[in-house]
Amino acid sequence: MVTEKATRSRFVRLLRHEWTVATAGSVLLAIVMVWLLPPYASRLVTGGVKQETIANPVRTIIGDAGDPTAQAWIVAWNGQSLRHGLRGLWHTNAFYPDTFGLAYTDTLFGYAPAGLIGEGVTAAVLRYNVLFVLTFALAFLGGYAMLRQLGAERVAAALAGAALAYAPWRYDHAGHLNIMSTGGITLAVAMLARGHGWSLTRGYRSDRVRPGWAVAGWLVAAWQVTLGFGIGLGFVYLLALACLCAAIGWLVRGRPPLGRRLILADLAGGLVFTAVTAFFAYGYQQVRELYPNVTRSWDYVAVFSPTPRGLFVAPQYSLPWGTLHNDARAQLGNAANEKALLCGYALYLLALGGLVLSSWSVRQRLLLLAGTILGILFALGTNGPTYRLLHLYVPGFDGSRTPGRLILWPTIFMAVLAAGLLTKLAWLARTATLPQWQTVAVRVLTIPPLLLVLAEGMPDMDHPDTPVAPAAFAMASAPLMVLPSDENVDTNVLLWSTAGFPLMVNGASGYIPPNHQGLRDLMQTFPSEPSLDRLRRLGIRSVVVLRDRVPGTPFEAVLSAPTPPGVIRQDIGPDILYTIS
Fold first, then answer.
1. Helix (H), strand (E) counts: the chain
2. Does residue 6 register a pLDDT over 90?
3. 315 touches 168 (CB < 8 A)
């Protein structure tokens, strides 16, 4: 019989366990770094503050009130679809009457369980803010877990986690939850390496094989893919390449026995991963078949391709460097927010030191250096010599417009190099025959680099109020359309539609179908006879005009246009509702 004392002792051990501390610490660190500390740190750094108090997570949205509101809708739509057995997953309430609207951008389906919690706009905003903070926690935890499995010391692993979660370049994508969600990659690698009994310091050890961890790694990898191919596509190919290299290495080493359970674990996990990848590839392929022009031309990619200068430029939302690099960002040209690729000056120096002094072997360091250089060349897009290979010959990459997102992979390689340096310092402190004070000094030397990476990675993001849904929108009969319709307005309309998900023409994403844009253009003449004709043929029953958004747009004439026969106009608050019969 288990005594109360034994139960309490187990509970205490669980609380003090490394992975309990690491998980809780990752979450607490993310809350402090992303939500609580920036307003006050901004005051110290810049002498001003973007907000006087901590933002309200149910009334403000982190980043800006544009793309994040659309991403909040995606998560809510996935939850709605999951609630109804995935019925209509691909064909959203937006972009009516076009189909496969979810596949116009990354699906974020892995967050669908969160979409089951709560309903409406308030729940969507709170859900998005929580998920946004948790992406940092998972990125830190994934990096920490991967480096611990590879053989790094705790502080070194924490430094790698910090470098991956709080790299300054990530804040260029503050409005892209799909790009911020990278933690599943390193967590999957950690689990797969653990499952196969492999580390950088000890290589393959058959006595360390854990088939259950291998299955878990494949499942986490599959979950990462469900978030979208913006980051997931490169992960799929690199994972396939790693499997190929592992198979070749197994053959070269004389085919050592792997164990029946591990083989079955890999077959089962790999099958799930392949099936999930194929399911989401199907949705994207349908869009490619419906709209062949969804692929990006080489000239289009060139507009978003960084130059080598971008590796030393931080985005606007970087607290230490954002304001200081204003002029440097302006020199990056058009789409500068896609070209600021600073991984962190501290990380650069530590990775360089890790090439000289490291716990990893010389061969491993050279491979990590090669991976870093190759990854940077790919991230430079048309300004590098290698990206054309991806664009022309690797399926899927011709649909991507932003090569700079590939900077994730050099960041990972440099984090591993930096962790090797700190691990070596910890080993020296442990094994050297030094006086006690010198041993402590060497160990303490591993702490400042971690703090420096965290300080350099501190964000300074806005928390704007979320736009309130107009009363006219709630009273409109679906299918409906809101005017003006453009990328800026439609992101907000998507958020408003989380209250009931009415069918509507409005929609904003990484790709806009030609028919959709054509209807937007025609509606600039609303309520002209041609525009009404088109709306009636589509079965549109209501048009909502946002009076405060119309001035200065091509839709401005609608405010003074006479009401045609067969149309009922109502002024509801500051806005206008047209009902079409």
1. 24, 6
2. no
3. yes
